[in-house]
Amino acid sequence: MGVQVSWDTGQEQPPARRAAFASMTAVTAGDKEAWLALFAADAVVEDPVGPSMFDAEGKGHHGHEGIGAFWDMTIANVERFEFTIRDSHAGGDEVANVGTITTFLPGGYRVDTDGVFVYRVGEDGLIRSVRAFWETERAMATARQVEG
């Protein structure tokens, strides 16, 4: 359970990678306040990028209020998260993580979402944007009921 990463978290990491890891850790812990504290006041979350069932206009969730509402609509409804990051590419103030987010939903369902998850931070280390590239249809095709 918890966050699984392929980079050595004992080594000094670029700020965006540290912020991404902190974000995954807060989500896994179900700690909305810790998660929101990682974001700058004017941050934007696009998860997924483009129009979706979570963002009809595809313009993202803006500021702590919008990002908090995104949590309530999505993250809060998941019983458990597992993050598996297979690769991570840092450059400048950004990191692109390639991996799978496994969500365990009420009723014993599990969904695996493969994607590329891009975090950008400011000089203060706070997250300025999260852009999650994944496809709803591909993720939903993995939905299955699991035991206990």
Can you describe what's shown?
By secondary structure, the chain is α+β, with helices and mostly antiparallel strands. Helix content is 25%, strand content 40%. The protein is built from 4 helices and 8 strands. It has helices at residues 15-29, 32-37, 63-73, 136-140, and strands at 2-4, 39-46, 61-62, 80-91, 94-105, 109-121, 127-133, 144-145. Strands 1, 2, 3, 4, 5, 6, 7 and 8 form an 8-stranded mixed β-sheet that branches. Strand 6 (109-121) and strand 7 (127-133) form a beta hairpin. It is globular, with a radius of gyration of 15 Å.
Write the layout of secondary structure elements.
Elements: E1 2-4, H1 15-29, H2 32-37, E2 39-46, E3 61-62, H3 63-73, E4 80-91, E5 94-105, E6 109-121, E7 127-133, H4 136-140, E8 144-145
Keyword list:
8-stranded mixed beta sheet, alpha+beta, 148 residues, 4 helices
Brief write-up:
It contains four helices and eight strands, in the order βααββαββββαβ. By secondary structure, it is of the alpha+beta class.
Morphology call:
globular
Task: Tell me the number of helical segments per DSSP (H or I, 4 or more residues long).
Answer: 4
Assembly status: single chain
How many strands, what sense, and barrel or not for the largest sheet?
A: 8 strands, mixed
- Span between termini: 14 Å
Rg, rounded, reads: 15 Å
